Amino acid sequence: MKVLVIGGGGREHALCWAIAKSPRCAKLFCAPGNPGIGKLAECVEIATEDLDGLVAFARERAIDFVVVGPEAPLVAGLADRLTDAGIAVFGPSGAAAAIEGSKTLMKDLCAKYGVPTAEYARFDEPDAAKEYIRARGAPIVVKADGLAAGKGVTVCQNVNEAYAAIDHVMTEQAFGASGDEVVIEQYLEGEEVSFFALVDGTRAIPFGACQDHKARDDGDKGPNTGGMGAYSPTPLITPALEREIMARCILPMAKGLVAEGKPFRGVLFAGLMMTADGPKVLEYNARFGDPECQVLMPRLQSDALEVLHACATGRLERVAVAWRPETALAVVMAAKGYPGAYEKGTEIHGLDEAEEIEGVHVFHAGTSRANGRLLAVGGRVLAVTALGATVADAQRNAYRAVDRIRWPGGFCRRDIGWRAIRLAG
User: Fold this and answer.
1) Cα–Cα distance between 27 and 360 in angstroms, integer?
2) Are 154 and 142 in contact (CB under 8 A)?
3) End of a domain among 141, 160, 180?
4) pLDDT of 147
């Protein structure tokens, strides 16, 4: 098959890395790609939001299969456009992807189809939202309704923080139109888990679980980010819990979307809080997580292209998903200042040395190459992923690799995986 991957971040690098290993992959393209992806695929200068350009390219090159990485083109209807052009695509329709594009829609569907989630209320006016917060008290969670690149959620420990979050989202419009409405949720106690399932419209199978670290600083302190690291599998998800999550959180939503006339095809990513009352859904995403994808793909033993294509074409029953026994752990290296203002154009060295360590892969996110120099041009720039027999082993290997990378303009957390290591004793 000729395959096109859409996106240019660490998630798409991991997808390209896995797909390129498939004997079924005759030619791999990526739009727009990045310098790391460029070693695996032919990168094409088409932006992810240029739906016309992407569809035209897929037609011109007779692409057999498209894998869409980011959420924005899915919500904008790229999968619909490709399907109309007769091209198989991994990723849900725009109507189904709205489960990520609108948190109010997602919460309403959870209520309708009996999916366990936090109590919530929705508002399109800041004063009413603040009155609700005053009545409910804190801690409480404020979420921008639309897409916000993983930064639209604020866990507020007191009422004043919650008021400030409302002002930030609705009055200052920090996320543009995505903050025209907000969802205010009950605060849930527990540990967060990222759970993935492949859904082909009518069937769903589990596809791994991870834990990621959203806070910028060690000890899960500091501002929220798009993710500073992840590991998979997580010791929190036992086989019994996996069955419970599928039965209570995945299958009811998949069936509900069919009933709504918008069947889901692709990866359904449930952000879960593991509470004393069982798993509860914090959010659904319509794509692989980032950096979660960077730990799922190195663990995947099955042919990634075969599995994703079977899901996209309604043939999930024909594939079995097998995983390597090791743990994978990814450490994100970000530009100093992230998630606030950060310097662009700082030079990075040492990636080849890092990848000399067995089981280590360095996935590029915010990089570019100029005059032979590898430069940091984004906030989250690299995901250094390592395998190990245990979380502690994977962590040790990942930080050995990080320490070989010479990048004075970057930083990382030094404790990715600490919860699982503490749990293991």
Assistant:
1) 25
2) yes
3) 180
4) 82
CA distance 80 to 77: 5
pLDDT, position 150:
67
Residue 245 included in any domain:
yes
* 145 has pLDDT over 90: no
Record the tokens describing residue 62, joined without a space. Answer: 């007779």
SS3 per-residue string spanning 322-357 = CECCCEEEEEEEEECCCCCCCCCCEECECHHHHCCC
* 103 domain-assigned: no
Q: End-to-end alpha-carbon separation of the chain, Å?
A: 47
Q: How much is the pTM? A: 0.94
Whether 42 and 29 have beta carbons less than 8 Å apart is answered as yes
What CATH number has the domain bearing residue 131? 3.30.1490.20
Inter-residue contact 264 to 94 (CB < 8 Å): no
Residue 234 and residue 298 in one domain: yes
Q: Name the DSSP letter for residue 203.
A: -
Cα 21 versus chain centre, distance = 22
Predicted pLDDT at 178: 86
